[in-house]
């Protein structure tokens, strides 16, 4: 699992979303590191944090738990978390678990 932050250096512009691009597998082996990295992103985020899932090749229950946990933390900080570009398997996983209703999607 790789996290690539596309937020600008320095102070983030609150009118622009912070976008984090994920790639690889989100599973029991990578979930803890992903959680730490996303919590760090929240500290430097604007009012909208977008997680790009277009390069995620696998996600297990631990990965879903990370997304839900980060959404809760974001909400408590006044930040909206949204997902974008999930692959078909990820869209299906979000739908089957009902998380597609709780985790907003953006184009």
Automatic annotation (TrEMBL):
InterPro entries tied to this protein: Anti-sigma_ant, MlaB-like_STAS, STAS_dom, STAS_dom_sf
SUPFAM superfamilies, per the entry: SpoIIaa-like
UniProt feature coiled coil, ranges: none
Gene3D superfamilies xrefs: STAS domain
Lineage top rank: taxon: Bacteria
Domain called STAS: residue spans: 20-107
Signal peptide: none
PANTHER family hit by this protein: ANTI-SIGMA FACTOR ANTAGONIST TM_1081-RELATED, ANTI-SIGMA FACTOR ANTAGONIST TM_1081-RELATED-RELATED
Family (UniProt): Belongs to the anti-sigma-factor antagonist family.
Protein name per its UniProtKB record: Anti-sigma factor antagonist
Organismal lineage: Bacteria, Bacillati, Actinomycetota, Actinomycetes, Streptosporangiales
């Amino acid at each position: 699992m790789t996290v690539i932050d596309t937020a600008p250096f320095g102070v983030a512009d609150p009118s622009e979303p912070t976008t984090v691009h994920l790639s690889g597998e989100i599973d029991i082996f990578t979930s803890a590191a992903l959680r730490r990295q996303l919590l760090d992103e929240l500290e430097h985020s604007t009012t909208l944090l977008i997680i790009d899932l277009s390069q995620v090749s696998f996600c297990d229950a631990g990965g879903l738990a990370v997304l839900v946990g980060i959404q809760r933390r974001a909400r408590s900080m006044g930040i909206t978390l949204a997902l974008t570009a999930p692959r078909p398997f990820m869209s299906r996983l979000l739908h089957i678990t009902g998380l597609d209703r709780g985790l907003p999607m953006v184009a």
